[in-house]
Write a structure and sequence with these properties.
There is one protein chain. The protein is an alpha+beta fold. It has one domain. The protein is 55% helix and 16% strand. α1 crosses α3. It is globular and about 50 Å long. It starts with a helix and ends in a 5-residue tail after the last helix.
């Protein structure tokens, strides 16, 4: 979890510092598909609950308590579940850090697009959350005994 949190905060810091020096505050990585941009999100996933940083911070805090509870109650029975929970915790902590120390905004910088369609910008924390979900799905398909 600590490594994931460090990666998230480091990547946000480096990319935001770099992009503020670029014209238009963006850099194309793969033309027509991927670019780095400066984006501040005051909502949750896909901008839901926009403008409610205290609610989102409270939900994140509750999520961390639940994640820790599941982690410690599973008694190390399923390593894949533990890796998924660590990724969840890192993602939640990274975005919570931004909300608390960035005036309620989360720093997003990865923009995936095709022509005029843009997926909502995201960051390393969001990526870890998605990978964690994928690992939990894989774990649930592989495990015969409940985690």
């Amino acid at each position: 979890m600590a490594a994931g949190l460090a990666l998230d905060l480091w990547s946000k810091s480096i990319v935001f510092r770099w992009l503020t020096q670029k014209p238009g505050n963006s850099v194309s990585i793969i033309d027509g598909f991927l670019r780095l941009v400066l984006a501040l999100n005051d909502g949750g996933a896909f901008g839901i609950f926009s403008g409610r940083p205290y609610l989102l911070a409270a939900v994140s805090a509750v999520a961390l308590i639940v994640i820790a509870g599941v982690f410690f109650l599973s008694a190390g029975q399923h390593r894949l579940v533990h890796v998924a929970l660590a990724l969840f915790a890192a993602g939640v902590c990274g975005n919570l850090w931004d909300r608390v120390f960035n005036h309620g905004h989360v720093r997003d910088f990865i923009d995936v697009y095709y022509r005029d369609y843009h997926w909502p910008a995201f960051n390393a924390a969001d990526t870890m959350l998605c990978i964690g979900v994928g690992l939990l799905i894989i774990s649930s398909l592989r495990v015969t005994k409940r985690a």
